Amino acid sequence: MTTLPTRQRGSILVEASFLMVFFLILFFGTIDMSRAINVLMDLHQAVYAGAIYGASGHSTDNNGMTNVAKADARYASVSTFTANLYCACSTGGTLKSCTNPGCGGTVYQYVEVSGSTSFNTLFPYGVIPRTFNFNANCSLRIQ
């Protein structure tokens, strides 16, 4: 049986410790990225649920739209939501106030729900910021 020279003893332990740190950062980075994507998808879904509520006959109930969005936000728990009713003179036109849109033709009504939340990573990674701010909005035309 051959033995390693005395100056090479423990080199595997040093190399393994460097690799272990790299793989742990990669592992926890993947977990944090998955959590961030989950929060962002949840925020988008909550905003969409609030807009669906407003477009289904509750267009003037801004509090109802924001409450539906808050109730639907499972993972984006610390979120702020706003809801508005807008009008446009034509499909895809500029959004205006519904009290006096100033158009001679057909006026289209839209509900818009916006939301924002922040996400904190599990660990500080150095080059990656610790906090991310996510925003989402959804506009639906009322039929």
Architecture overview:
It is a single chain. The relative contact order is 0.17. Helices cover 39% and strands 25% of the residues. A hairpin with a 6-residue loop joins strand 1 and strand 2 (95-96). The N and C termini lie far apart (84 Å). It is rod-shaped, with a radius of gyration of 26 Å. It has one domain (15-121, 130-141). With 143 residues, the protein is of the alpha+beta class. The protein contains 2 helices and 4 strands, in the order H-H-E-E-E-E. It has a 4-stranded antiparallel sheet, covered by helices on one side.
Features:
143 residues, 2 helices, alpha+beta
Tertiary shape: rod-shaped
Beta-strand portion reads 25-35%
Q: State the distance separating the first and last CA atoms.
A: 84 Å
- Radius of gyration over alpha carbons? 26 Å
Number of extended strands: 4
Q: What is the subunit arrangement here? A: single chain
List SSEs in N-to-C order: HHEEEE
Strand line-up of the largest beta sheet: 2-1-3-4
Largest sheet: 4 strands, antiparallel
Number of helices: 2
Mean pLDDT: 85
Query: How many discrete structural domains?
Result: 1
Structural classification: alpha+beta
Helical fraction: 25-40%
Low-confidence stretches: none
